[in-house]
Design brief:
This protein folds into two domains: about 100 residues, 2-Layer Sandwich (Beta-Lactamase); about 130 residues, PAS domain (Beta-Lactamase, 2-Layer Sandwich), CATH 3.30.450. It is built from six helices and eleven strands. The strands form two sheets. Strands 1, 2, 3, 4, 5 and 6 form a six-stranded antiparallel beta sheet that branches. It has a five-stranded antiparallel beta sheet with strand order 8-7-11-10-9.
Length: about 280
């Protein structure tokens, strides 16, 4: 081989080695910078989404405060309120007094003006139960035995959210927002609640896209999926999607975890909602 070609071959070999030595770290650094940029961008979007989700519930809590401040709702003259404690669905008849009618009017006006509200209701310590609309089947029902009432009774003066539950008539996720009626001495004489559907939030979340296949999910503190683009995922636990690094998801306020699914590597970028104690995440 002529000397000129040997020199060219040597130069090409050395150049290739230099590119491999330098190009590897450069490529790795560029990839990391790109991932960091994507992460920061998505975290910014999660902050905006958290504002929307949090505002949804803080508005309801403010409205509930207004409802329980109503003098008709606060009235302690509840002896004649409707009771279902001994109700028989086949023979039950409503006998609604004037005060109860005024309370029902307050409840129903709010329900009818908010399409995300399924029901507004009140239970009393005497077992009576007043609702924004009549029950379809007035079977036996004692509000004092219900989890929502006990949650309020055990936390007087607080506005709280019940555990999510599935709607009887649809695939919607429902949550009750409840608070107590307190006497002048701080004793509880009733609990008032607003049941809301997350259907509007779900539709909002369905519209959010990340790249070609990315999507947004809403998780409660236990990792239960409350809203997602794919409604079949609702009420599943997050471990149905990813089983790797879940400790990092629950232990941190924000971050990224990677997991393998269908022989592909995926990322879950999450942020904690401090008001709701939920996680909002892109997958």
């Amino acid at each position: 081989m002529k000397l000129k070609y040997k020199i060219l071959l040597l130069f090409a070999t050395v150049s290739l080695v230099v590119l491999l030595i330098i190009g590897g770290p450069v490529s790795y650094r560029l990839k990391n910078e790109r991932l960091k940029s994507i992460y920061q961008g998505l975290q910014g979007r999660l902050v905006d989404i958290n504002f929307v989700v949090t505002s949804f519930f803080t508005d309801i809590e403010r409205d509930l405060d207004g409802i329980v401040a109503n003098p008709y709702v606060r009235s302690k003259y509840d002896d004649g309120f409707t009771s279902f404690i001994d109700a028989d669905a086949s023979s039950f008849e409503y006998h609604i007094g004037e005060l109860e009618k005024k309370i029902i009017d307050v409840f129903s006006r709010y329900r009818n003006s908010h399409d995300h509200v399924n029901s507004v209701y009140m239970g009393r310590e005497n077992g009576s139960f007043v609702r924004s609309h009549k029950r379809n089947r007035p079977t036996r029902y004692d509000p004092r035995d219900r989890p929502w009432y006990q949650l309020g009774r055990n936390n007087p003066g607080e506005i709280l959210r019940t555990e999510p539950y599935s709607s009887v008539t649809s695939t919607d996720v429902n949550i009750g927002v409840i608070t107590t009626l307190l006497d002048h001495d701080g004793s509880v004489y009733g609990v008032v609640g607003i049941d809301v559907t997350l259907d509007n939030l779900t539709r909002y979340i369905e519209k959010i896209r990340v790249g070609r296949n990315g999507y947004l999910i809403l998780l409660d503190a236990d990792g239960t999926i409350l809203a997602a683009r794919d409604k079949s995922m609702v009420f599943q636990n997050i471990d149905a999607i990813c089983k790797d690094n879940l400790n990092n998801l629950f232990a941190n306020k924000k971050g990224t975890i990677s997991f393998s699914k269908d022989n592909h590597k995926h990322y879950l970028i999450f942020s904690h909602s401090p008001v709701l104690d939920w996680k909002i995440a892109f997958v």
